[in-house]
Amino acid sequence: MSSLEQLYQQVILDHARERHAYGLREGAAGESFQVNPTCGDEVRLRVHIDFGSAGDGGIGGADSFGGAGGGDVGSGVLTGAGASGREVSARPRISGVSWEGHGCSISQASISVMSDLVTGTDVLTADAFAESFRALMHHRGEPLGDSRDEELGDAAAFVGVAKYPARVKCALLGWMALRDALAHALVKEES
């Protein structure tokens, strides 16, 4: 095992033991419950959003989500403009993520790393991180080879998980919950 692989393994083990943002907080803008039926991993994730002045033009309406309510991780859930072509006037920021769940070290560590990565970012950046992580999980155990590897920070440590197809769903579980919770929060804010 290379020193880089050892470092990645240590990052995953550290986050599995010391789960960041663990414990549900009240006042969430959106929530999602996801289960991996293959292994029984599950997560209830809440996203806390500072909408600021986003209510005056918002996200462009519910039509800008491309079917977001189902937590589709295969495509970008959030877009910068709705069908009307209106651009986002103020991007809501993720002020925090809180979660509870159980499962394997990979699922728990992935949620912990994701929580750190997306807290403080705007929702479109968080969605881009989720898409980059999904791409990493389908890249057959190789780095993406572009700026996304660095942007993912500790989440890039999961690159080796892609070599084990049965574990990819474990790593993606929290990211699916994030996208679903964001979509629900933004639809709720628009209504």
UniProtKB/TrEMBL annotation:
Coiled coil: none annotated. SUPFAM superfamilies: SufE/NifU. One of its GO terms (molecular function) is iron ion binding. One of its GO terms (biological process) is iron-sulfur cluster assembly. Gene3D superfamilies: 3.90.1010.10. Residues 92-170 form the NIF system FeS cluster assembly NifU N-terminal domain. It comes from the Bacteria. It holds the Pfam family NifU_N. This is SUF system FeS assembly protein, NifU family. The lineage of its organism: Bacteria, Bacillati, Actinomycetota, Actinomycetes, Micrococcales.
